[in-house]
Amino acid sequence: MYVCSCFGVTEAQVKKHADAGACTPRQIASACKAGTDCGGCVRRIQALLGRGDCPRRDLLDQRQEPVTASLAHPAAVSAVGTGDVRLSDAA
């Protein structure tokens, strides 16, 4: 069955690229162009990828601290004037 009619990409091709290590729709697009024209197939590609094994995703799932928490460290941010925020050079 075709996933991307713009480039004639099938489910089997998307699954083959996923088995080869593509974990995201963007990586699938890099491999076979699917999702780069009209974009109508991106959700289908996401569904095919699901929440399967992906080394990078596994690393993100293991991360305990949110990314924004490390950016808003109190020692690295200082207030300047009214409402302006500047990152200090000490961080």
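[next item in queue]
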Amino acid sequence: MHSGVLRMEIANLSTKEFKEVLSRLDCYLFVKDVDRRYVYANEAVAQLFGRSADDIIGCDDAQFFDLDACNELLVHDKQVLNGESISKVERNVDNDGFIRHYQTLKTPIYDNQGRVKGIFGLSIDISESIAKRDQLEYLALRDALTGVFNRRYLDMQLKREVASHVRRSKPLSFVMIDVDNFKGVNDRFGHSVGDQVLQRIGQLLMSSVREEDYCFRFGGDEFALLLPMTSALSAYQVAERVRSRVVGINFLPTRERRSVSMLALVWRS
């Protein structure tokens, strides 16, 4: 006997009950027609777009997303309308100017004749996870004290750039930098002052090279510059610019100046 037990079948749910369930979910649910216009959006989507769910019906993505995001969404939607189910990370710039990332699942909706008549989509905001991942990747490749790239990334990038040089026969320069008498700084003024010197030199190096160049710290007081597409003469000019800028700075409480020693390796074209 099953008297007193409430049985439910999905087919018996009314459209209203089904929409109420979907609106309570903490994810973005939507349906588009073959013209890529919204025919359904749950409450989470309405809040995201800053419109009521009813106002979203009949709109397309151009009214809610920037141009780059619209182009990306168009490519994905065309795949679904061609019968594919996809899972993509999509991005958009929100109303406050922040980039948001969404893990989106999309699948075709078929009519009784097996023809695609729309798109069902489900999105989850993964911006926080993406930010944490990017931060971990940043920390894994950066020197914690100075902010320049670390020895691990030097090993990786040097192999890539040398391989690129071999393929393309383009010049490549590598400049090694050593802070002169750095041990004396630590001995006389303490490690905290020594750390400040290294931080200042790291900042100076990053501001002395191009965006496509790389700055590394690969030892206690040892730095390096990896300069793609840079001839021996240009590498010398970079090194001289760094040397003169280091000499021109008063680093320490006693107003002492520092100097650096350099060695350049050049792969010629």
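[queue empty]
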